[in-house]
Design a protein that fits this description.
This protein has 22 helices and 30 strands. It is of the alpha/beta class. The strands form eight sheets. The chain has an eight-stranded mixed beta sheet, sandwiched between helices. The structure holds 5'-O-(acetylsulfamoyl)adenosine. 5'-O-(acetylsulfamoyl)adenosine (7RM) binds next to helix 12, strand 20, strand 24 and strand 25.
Length: 659
């Protein structure tokens, strides 16, 4: 754990402010007292399997009921193994059958201001038609489908259509480059790519199709492409008519009836690539029943969901938060979901608050980095808008600093709305640590306590629990339904990454402390994973991108504390032979990383240096580099540093290379 994090945590731990839900909120809450919370918590921990089985029947509709609950052959779990169900039926058909077909499923706001309101009945129809289109293109149960799409309702249609026919989807966020898209498609051995011509962002058109064209030159397993014309700016001139199909043309000829596949509980629902501590992204595999149960149940309880809520999660569907809390969790509960295509500050920084006012949003879920940006842009953009519809706020993606938490509570929540700070990961599938808003006292900066049935702990290297208020590794000690099942195509890496650090426990990769009230304070990653604006990025991945440039000999990438983004990307680079450090080369290297990974990995700082600080065994000493990047004096152990003069030269590197 880095020194800087330890410091932040000490200040966080002195946080004594504690907030109880208002009487008004509590009176209507699903879980409305600590006593009720405690009763459920005990029920879940006494007999987790019985508890999950009960919830699985309460929250999901089964085509075939299960008789087995958990089959645990560490580290492989099978939940509800002999049951059968379909995720799209759970998100659509059952609501329509229950007479809720006219309820709004999606309130969509495009960036230029175009809007659509889609009911559950309409969404089901579209999903059936699109599922039939997938079948027409030869997609069968088990085939993988890439989805590289903007924030439009069709993305949800594509996901649920895949789920309907049992074809696991794999979404790639639009901010990833062609190369990143191709490598994910190749790893997944996907047969089909679904994309759009482009989308709107800050008034301009982001050309997604161009990236797909480039990716397809290196993605030989893709047989067909479906293109949604979102902007109409792409004239189809460059389309390869043999394998590229227009979304609307395909849809027109399909029947709107598509019987759902009856899928085993453990049938793969999706793959989602995420960065780990090595260069190659991991395809996190989630299966149908356990994942859907986790999303549906945590959505209902953590957001204290009620039928008349208007719910808005600002995450892009290309991230796990979008999967679980834009699509599967809310739709499984028949919720009304707001989806917005564009940026928070376009045409001006009041856009989010205008949307809340316009749609009378009651539950709002966003990331700390967004909150910090709003603070920077100024309160006047908030104060103009009527936010009285809001009743609950949530955050996710990174630790929230107490200042941002207090601003969120006061300015957005107007001291009325509880805040749920939700800790979880792509791997956990759904929320693991979070308050129950009608019961749990909240404090700025802590996600509070584990969800029902989740056995989280903070332990040392040997797996022994550490005393209160002592830093350690955040682990999960019992399997849970929505846990990842493996890393696609690399089960060995799955074992190594998550189950080998501390035998018998799921290793989260996060550091944490637990206070005397049982609250968990997440300190951040303890591995080489950065959290930049709530996005996970591997330092190794950025390093490999840098060294693939012919001028670069060696590269080390570290996180630097950033007031808005949480962390920014600082790169230390040594050059080949006689290559001279120039501002042009710096720009070129930045572009090089963007091309290899995507705009989200754009380095904030590149420093040229003659050598990197290494231990005698040749390991790069990132701790020292982090201190240098942050402009801090190093006070840690330097006795293993091979060459002390390297440090001095590095400290001055900033002045030197701003040639
Ligand atoms: C949902 C998501 C996971 C990593 C995780 C943490 C960090 C997420 C919080 C948080 C402190 C939170 N999935 N993280 N939520 N840290 N408080 N409430 O973000 O796979 O993309 O990232 O994000 O480090 O390990 S993710």
């Amino acid at each position: 754990m880095t020194d800087s994090r330890a410091k932040t945590i000490t200040s966080v731990l002195q946080e004594e402010r504690s907030f109880l839900p208002s009487k008004e909120f509590q009176a209507r809450a699903r879980i409305s007292s600590l006593a009720q919370y405690e009763e459920l918590r005990q029920e879940a921990s006494r007999d987790p399997e019985a508890f999950w089985a009960k919830k699985a029947r309460e929250y999901l509709q089964w085509q075939k009921d299960f008789t087995q609950v958990l089959d645990w052959q560490e580290p492989h779990a099978k939940w509800f193994g002999d049951g059968q169900l379909n995720a799209s039926v759970n998100c659509l058909d059952r609501h329509v059958e229950a007479g809720r077909g006219q309820k709004t499923a999606i309130l969509w706001e495009g960036e230029p201001g175009d809007t659509r309101r889609i009911t559950y009945a309409e969404l089901l129809q579209d999903v059936c038609r699109f599922a039939n289109a997938l079948k027409e293109l030869g997609i069968r149960k088990g085939d993988r489908v890439m989805i590289y799409m903007p924030m439009v309702p069709e993305t949800v249609v594509a996901m649920l259509a895949c789920a309907r026919i049992g074809a696991p989807h794999s979404l790639v966020f639009g901010g990833f480059s062609a190369e990143a898209l191709a490598s994910r498609s190749n790893d997944a051995k996907a047969k089909l790519m679904i994309t759009a011509d482009g989308n709107y962002r800050r008034g301009s058109v982001v050309p997604l199709k161009n990236n797909v064209d480039e990716a397809l030159r290196h993605a030989p397993t893709i047989e067909n492409v479906i293109v949604l014309q979102r902007t109409g700016k792409d004239q189809q001139g460059t389309w390869n008519k043999e394998r590229e199909h227009d979304w609307h043309e395909l849809m027109q000829k399909q029947s709107d009836i598509c019987p759902p596949e009856e899928l085993d509980s453990e049938h793969p629902l999706f793959l989602l690539y995420t960065s780990g501590s090595t260069g190659q992204p991991k395809g996190i595999l989630h299966t149908t029943a356990g994942y859907l149960l986790g999303c549906a149940y945590t959505f209902a309880e953590t957001f204290d969901y009620r039928d008349d809520d208007v719910y808005w999660c600002t995450a892009d569907v290309g991230w796990v938060t979008g999967h679980s809390y834009v699509v599967y969790g809310p739709l499984a509960n028949a919720a009304t979901v707001v989806i917005y295509e564009g940026a928070p500050n376009y045409p001006d920084p009041s856009r989010f608050w205008q949307i809340i006012e316009k749609y009378k949003v009651t539950i709002f879920y966003t990331a700390p980095t967004a909150i910090r940006s709003f603070i920077k842009w100024g309160d006047e953009f908030v104060e103009k808008q009527d936010l009285s519809s809001l009743r609950l706020l949530g955050t996710v993606g990174e630790p929230i600093n107490p200042e941002a938490w207090m601003w969120y509570r006061q300015k957005i929540g107007q001291d009325r709305c509880p805040i749920v700070d939700t800790w979880w990961q792509t791997e956990t599938g759904c929320i693991m640590i979070a308050p129950f808003p009608g019961a749990t006292p909240t404090r700025p900066g802590t996600a509070t306590r584990p969800f029902f049935g989740i056995e989280a702990d903070v332990v040392d290297h040997d797996g022994n629990p550490v005393p209160d208020n002592t830093g350690g590794f955040l682990v999960i000690k019992k399997p849970w339904p929505s846990m990842l099942r493996t890393i696609y195509g690399d089960d060995e890496r799955y074992r190594k990454q998550y189950w080998s650090h501390i035998p018998g426990m799921y290793f989260t990769g996060d550091g944490a402390r637990r206070d005397e009230h049982g609250n968990f304070w997440i300190m951040g990653r303890i591995d080489d994973v950065l959290n930049v604006s709530g996005h996970r990025l591997s330092t190794m991945e950025i390093e490999s991108a840098l060294v693939s440039h012919s001028s670069v000999a060696e590269a080390a990438v570290v996180g630097r504390p950033d007031a808005i983004k949480g962390e920014s990307i600082a790169c230390f680079v040594t050059l080949e032979g006689k290559t001279q450090p120039t501002p042009e080369l710096k720009t070129e290297l930045i572009q090089h990383v963007v091309r290899h990974i995507g705009a989200l990995a754009r380095p904030d700082d590149i420093r040229f240096t003659e050598s990197l600080p290494k231990t005698r065994s040749g390991k790069i000493m990132r701790r020292l580099l982090r201190d240098i990047a942050a402009g801090r004096q190093s006070n840690g152990d330097m006795t293993t540093l091979e060459d002390f003069s390297v440090l001095e030269r590095l400290r001055h590197s900033e002045e030197q290379e701003s040639v």
